[in-house]
Amino acid sequence: MPELPEVEVVKIFLEDKLLNQTITNLEILNKKSFIGDTKDVINQKIIKFSRIGKQLSIYLSNGKILLIHLKMTGQLILGNTMLGHPTKFDKYPNKSTRLIIKFSPSCQRGGQGEIYFNDQRKFGWVQVFSANALSRFQSNLGLDILDPKFTPDYLYNQLQRSSRPVKSVLLDQHFFAGIGNIYANDALFLSKIHPTTPSNKINRTTALKLHRALLSIMKQSILAGGSTMKDNKYIRPDGSSGNNQFFFRVYQRAGEPCLICKTKILRTVIAGRGTFFCPKCQLACNK
Asked: What SUPFAM superfamilies does this protein's entry cite (predicted)?
Protein backbone atom coordinates (compact mmCIF):
# COMPACT_ATOMS: atom_id res chain seq x y z
CA MET A 1 0.00 0.00 0.00
CA PRO A 2 1.32 3.47 -0.82
CA GLU A 3 2.02 5.21 2.48
CA LEU A 4 2.74 8.86 3.27
CA PRO A 5 6.11 9.06 1.45
CA GLU A 6 4.79 7.38 -1.69
CA VAL A 7 1.72 9.63 -1.89
CA GLU A 8 3.91 12.69 -1.24
CA VAL A 9 6.19 11.67 -4.12
CA VAL A 10 3.15 11.32 -6.39
CA LYS A 11 1.89 14.73 -5.25
CA ILE A 12 5.20 16.44 -5.96
CA PHE A 13 5.43 14.85 -9.39
CA LEU A 14 1.87 15.73 -10.43
CA GLU A 15 2.19 19.22 -9.01
CA ASP A 16 5.16 19.82 -11.27
CA LYS A 17 3.44 18.43 -14.38
CA LEU A 18 -0.23 19.35 -13.97
CA LEU A 19 -0.59 22.53 -11.92
CA ASN A 20 -2.69 25.08 -13.88
CA GLN A 21 -3.68 22.43 -16.43
CA THR A 22 -7.37 22.07 -17.33
CA ILE A 23 -9.17 18.74 -17.06
CA THR A 24 -10.82 18.24 -20.45
CA ASN A 25 -12.50 14.88 -19.90
CA LEU A 26 -12.91 11.88 -17.62
CA GLU A 27 -13.16 8.36 -19.00
CA ILE A 28 -14.64 6.11 -16.33
CA LEU A 29 -13.81 2.45 -16.92
CA ASN A 30 -15.02 1.20 -13.53
CA LYS A 31 -18.04 2.95 -12.01
CA LYS A 32 -17.06 2.13 -8.42
CA SER A 33 -13.71 3.87 -8.81
CA PHE A 34 -15.24 7.33 -9.35
CA ILE A 35 -17.77 8.94 -7.01
CA GLY A 36 -19.36 12.23 -7.99
CA ASP A 37 -20.57 14.23 -10.96
CA THR A 38 -18.15 14.57 -13.87
CA LYS A 39 -19.67 17.99 -14.60
CA ASP A 40 -17.96 19.27 -11.44
CA VAL A 41 -14.59 18.28 -12.87
CA ILE A 42 -14.55 18.70 -16.65
CA ASN A 43 -13.24 22.06 -17.92
CA GLN A 44 -11.87 22.97 -14.50
CA LYS A 45 -8.31 24.14 -13.93
CA ILE A 46 -6.11 22.50 -11.30
CA ILE A 47 -5.06 25.23 -8.87
CA LYS A 48 -3.54 23.27 -5.99
CA PHE A 49 -2.37 19.85 -4.79
CA SER A 50 -2.30 18.81 -1.15
CA ARG A 51 -1.98 15.65 0.92
CA ILE A 52 -3.14 14.48 4.33
CA GLY A 53 -1.79 11.10 5.34
CA LYS A 54 -2.34 8.75 2.42
CA GLN A 55 -5.01 10.91 0.77
CA LEU A 56 -4.20 13.17 -2.20
CA SER A 57 -6.37 16.23 -2.90
CA ILE A 58 -6.59 18.07 -6.22
CA TYR A 59 -8.20 21.51 -5.89
CA LEU A 60 -10.17 22.81 -8.88
CA SER A 61 -10.96 26.33 -10.04
CA ASN A 62 -14.68 25.96 -9.24
CA GLY A 63 -14.00 25.18 -5.58
CA LYS A 64 -14.50 21.43 -5.92
CA ILE A 65 -11.84 18.98 -4.80
CA LEU A 66 -10.87 15.60 -6.24
CA LEU A 67 -9.83 13.33 -3.37
CA ILE A 68 -7.79 10.30 -4.38
CA HIS A 69 -7.10 7.31 -2.14
CA LEU A 70 -4.82 4.72 -3.70
CA LYS A 71 -5.58 2.10 -1.00
CA MET A 72 -3.69 -1.18 -1.59
CA THR A 73 -2.78 -1.18 -5.28
CA GLY A 74 -3.78 2.19 -6.73
CA GLN A 75 -1.42 4.05 -9.05
CA LEU A 76 -1.48 7.35 -10.91
CA ILE A 77 0.51 6.96 -14.12
CA LEU A 78 1.30 9.68 -16.63
CA GLY A 79 0.34 8.80 -20.20
CA ASN A 80 2.91 7.20 -22.50
CA THR A 81 4.54 5.30 -19.63
CA MET A 82 5.28 1.65 -20.33
CA LEU A 83 5.42 0.34 -16.77
CA GLY A 84 2.78 -0.13 -14.09
CA HIS A 85 0.87 -3.01 -12.60
CA PRO A 86 2.52 -6.42 -12.79
CA THR A 87 0.27 -7.69 -15.57
CA LYS A 88 1.27 -9.01 -18.98
CA PHE A 89 0.09 -5.76 -20.55
CA ASP A 90 2.72 -3.07 -21.04
CA LYS A 91 0.50 -0.38 -22.55
CA TYR A 92 -2.30 1.75 -21.18
CA PRO A 93 -5.14 1.49 -20.69
CA ASN A 94 -4.90 -2.12 -19.54
CA LYS A 95 -7.23 -4.33 -17.53
CA SER A 96 -6.22 -2.57 -14.29
CA THR A 97 -7.07 0.92 -15.57
CA ARG A 98 -10.20 2.24 -13.81
CA LEU A 99 -10.21 5.92 -14.75
CA ILE A 100 -8.51 8.16 -17.31
CA ILE A 101 -8.17 11.87 -16.54
CA LYS A 102 -7.46 13.95 -19.63
CA PHE A 103 -5.80 17.34 -19.57
CA SER A 104 -5.00 20.32 -21.74
CA PRO A 105 -3.24 20.43 -24.04
CA SER A 106 -5.38 17.56 -25.29
CA CYS A 107 -3.70 14.62 -26.95
CA GLN A 108 -4.51 11.14 -28.10
CA ARG A 109 -4.72 8.21 -25.76
CA GLY A 110 -1.32 7.21 -24.47
CA GLY A 111 0.09 10.72 -24.65
CA GLN A 112 1.39 12.99 -21.91
CA GLY A 113 -2.00 14.71 -21.53
CA GLU A 114 -3.54 11.80 -19.63
CA ILE A 115 -3.25 10.32 -16.17
CA TYR A 116 -4.28 6.69 -15.72
CA PHE A 117 -5.75 5.64 -12.39
CA ASN A 118 -4.83 1.96 -12.20
CA ASP A 119 -6.01 -0.28 -9.40
CA GLN A 120 -5.56 -4.01 -9.61
CA ARG A 121 -7.71 -4.83 -6.57
CA LYS A 122 -10.32 -2.08 -7.05
CA PHE A 123 -10.10 -0.78 -3.47
CA GLY A 124 -8.92 2.69 -4.43
CA TRP A 125 -11.20 5.54 -5.46
CA VAL A 126 -11.49 9.09 -6.74
CA GLN A 127 -14.27 11.23 -5.24
CA VAL A 128 -15.52 14.78 -5.79
CA PHE A 129 -15.96 16.89 -2.63
CA SER A 130 -16.91 20.41 -1.70
CA ALA A 131 -14.51 22.09 0.73
CA ASN A 132 -16.92 21.66 3.66
CA ALA A 133 -17.66 18.04 2.82
CA LEU A 134 -13.96 17.23 2.56
CA SER A 135 -13.30 18.85 5.93
CA ARG A 136 -15.99 16.68 7.52
CA PHE A 137 -14.74 13.56 5.75
CA GLN A 138 -11.18 14.04 7.01
CA SER A 139 -12.13 15.22 10.50
CA ASN A 140 -11.55 11.78 12.00
CA LEU A 141 -7.92 11.62 10.86
CA GLY A 142 -5.04 12.19 13.23
CA LEU A 143 -2.40 14.76 12.39
CA ASP A 144 -0.29 14.17 9.32
CA ILE A 145 3.21 13.08 10.33
CA LEU A 146 4.75 15.98 8.41
CA ASP A 147 2.36 18.57 9.86
CA PRO A 148 4.27 21.12 12.00
CA LYS A 149 1.73 20.41 14.75
CA PHE A 150 2.95 16.81 14.90
CA THR A 151 5.23 17.40 17.87
CA PRO A 152 6.76 15.00 20.39
CA ASP A 153 4.08 16.08 22.86
CA TYR A 154 1.31 15.32 20.36
CA LEU A 155 2.79 11.89 19.70
CA TYR A 156 3.15 11.13 23.40
CA ASN A 157 -0.39 12.26 24.23
CA GLN A 158 -1.87 10.20 21.42
CA LEU A 159 0.05 7.12 22.54
CA GLN A 160 -1.35 7.50 26.06
CA ARG A 161 -4.89 7.11 24.73
CA SER A 162 -4.58 3.38 24.10
CA SER A 163 -3.25 0.24 25.73
CA ARG A 164 -3.05 -1.61 22.43
CA PRO A 165 0.36 -2.63 21.06
CA VAL A 166 2.20 0.48 19.92
CA LYS A 167 2.53 -0.97 16.42
CA SER A 168 -1.28 -1.13 16.12
CA VAL A 169 -1.70 2.44 17.33
CA LEU A 170 0.87 3.77 14.86
CA LEU A 171 -1.09 2.19 12.02
CA ASP A 172 -4.42 3.63 13.21
CA GLN A 173 -5.15 6.61 10.96
CA HIS A 174 -7.45 8.06 13.65
CA PHE A 175 -4.32 8.58 15.76
CA PHE A 176 -1.74 9.43 13.10
CA ALA A 177 -2.31 10.06 9.40
CA GLY A 178 0.12 8.52 6.97
CA ILE A 179 1.99 5.79 8.84
CA GLY A 180 1.79 2.39 7.18
CA ASN A 181 3.33 -0.97 7.86
CA ILE A 182 6.72 -0.29 6.28
CA TYR A 183 7.50 2.83 8.26
CA ALA A 184 5.94 1.70 11.54
CA ASN A 185 8.27 -1.31 11.58
CA ASP A 186 11.40 0.67 10.84
CA ALA A 187 10.55 3.58 13.15
CA LEU A 188 10.05 1.21 16.08
CA PHE A 189 13.40 -0.39 15.32
CA LEU A 190 15.20 2.95 15.23
CA SER A 191 13.52 3.85 18.54
CA LYS A 192 14.40 0.48 20.09
CA ILE A 193 10.75 -0.15 20.95
CA HIS A 194 9.32 -3.66 20.89
CA PRO A 195 6.22 -3.60 18.65
CA THR A 196 4.03 -5.34 21.25
CA THR A 197 4.75 -2.72 23.93
CA PRO A 198 1.45 -1.26 25.19
CA SER A 199 1.12 2.17 23.66
CA ASN A 200 0.41 3.89 26.97
CA LYS A 201 3.59 2.44 28.46
CA ILE A 202 5.76 4.57 26.19
CA ASN A 203 7.41 7.31 28.26
CA ARG A 204 8.20 10.83 27.06
CA THR A 205 11.87 10.12 26.41
CA THR A 206 11.05 7.14 24.24
CA ALA A 207 8.25 9.06 22.50
CA LEU A 208 10.81 11.72 21.56
CA LYS A 209 13.03 9.03 20.00
CA LEU A 210 10.05 7.63 18.12
CA HIS A 211 9.11 11.10 16.88
CA ARG A 212 12.62 11.65 15.52
CA ALA A 213 12.63 8.21 13.91
CA LEU A 214 9.28 8.74 12.18
CA LEU A 215 10.31 12.08 10.71
CA SER A 216 13.70 10.72 9.68
CA ILE A 217 12.45 7.68 7.78
CA MET A 218 9.55 9.56 6.17
CA LYS A 219 11.84 12.28 4.83
CA GLN A 220 14.45 9.74 3.74
CA SER A 221 11.84 7.76 1.81
CA ILE A 222 10.50 10.86 0.07
CA LEU A 223 14.01 11.77 -1.05
CA ALA A 224 14.48 8.20 -2.29
CA GLY A 225 11.23 8.30 -4.28
CA GLY A 226 9.29 5.98 -1.98
CA SER A 227 9.44 2.21 -1.59
CA THR A 228 8.84 -0.04 -4.60
CA MET A 229 8.53 -3.73 -3.77
CA LYS A 230 8.99 -6.65 -6.17
CA ASP A 231 5.28 -6.62 -7.04
CA ASN A 232 5.58 -3.07 -8.46
CA LYS A 233 2.32 -2.05 -6.78
CA TYR A 234 3.86 1.35 -6.17
CA ILE A 235 5.73 3.20 -8.87
CA ARG A 236 6.12 6.89 -9.57
CA PRO A 237 3.85 8.57 -12.14
CA ASP A 238 6.61 8.41 -14.75
CA GLY A 239 6.81 4.63 -14.36
CA SER A 240 10.09 4.61 -12.45
CA SER A 241 10.66 2.77 -9.18
CA GLY A 242 11.40 4.30 -5.83
CA ASN A 243 14.63 3.32 -4.07
CA ASN A 244 13.79 3.40 -0.37
CA GLN A 245 13.38 -0.40 -0.29
CA PHE A 246 17.16 -0.63 -0.33
CA PHE A 247 17.26 1.12 3.05
CA PHE A 248 14.81 -1.00 5.07
CA ARG A 249 16.04 -1.63 8.61
CA VAL A 250 13.80 -4.55 9.59
CA TYR A 251 10.79 -4.54 7.24
CA GLN A 252 10.74 -7.70 5.08
CA ARG A 253 14.09 -8.78 6.54
CA ALA A 254 12.97 -11.77 8.63
CA GLY A 255 15.85 -14.19 9.15
CA GLU A 256 18.46 -11.65 8.13
CA PRO A 257 20.96 -10.20 10.62
CA CYS A 258 20.12 -7.02 12.50
CA LEU A 259 22.04 -4.08 11.08
CA ILE A 260 23.23 -3.20 14.59
CA CYS A 261 23.75 -6.38 16.61
CA LYS A 262 23.60 -9.13 13.94
CA THR A 263 20.80 -10.99 15.77
CA LYS A 264 18.31 -12.53 13.35
CA ILE A 265 15.29 -10.35 12.61
CA LEU A 266 12.03 -12.01 13.68
CA ARG A 267 8.58 -11.81 12.16
CA THR A 268 5.25 -11.94 13.96
CA VAL A 269 1.71 -10.75 13.24
CA ILE A 270 0.12 -7.82 15.08
CA ALA A 271 -3.41 -6.72 14.19
CA GLY A 272 -3.22 -8.83 11.06
CA ARG A 273 -0.07 -7.15 9.75
CA GLY A 274 3.37 -8.65 9.32
CA THR A 275 5.64 -7.21 12.00
CA PHE A 276 9.44 -7.31 11.95
CA PHE A 277 11.78 -6.60 14.85
CA CYS A 278 15.12 -7.36 16.44
CA PRO A 279 14.57 -9.29 19.70
CA LYS A 280 17.81 -7.93 21.15
CA CYS A 281 17.65 -4.25 20.19
CA GLN A 282 13.91 -3.81 20.71
CA LEU A 283 12.83 -4.49 24.27
CA ALA A 284 9.44 -3.83 25.85
CA CYS A 285 9.36 -0.26 27.17
CA ASN A 286 7.94 0.37 30.64
CA LYS A 287 7.32 3.61 32.50
From this structure: Glucocorticoid receptor-like (DNA-binding domain), N-terminal domain of MutM-like DNA repair proteins, S13-like H2TH domain
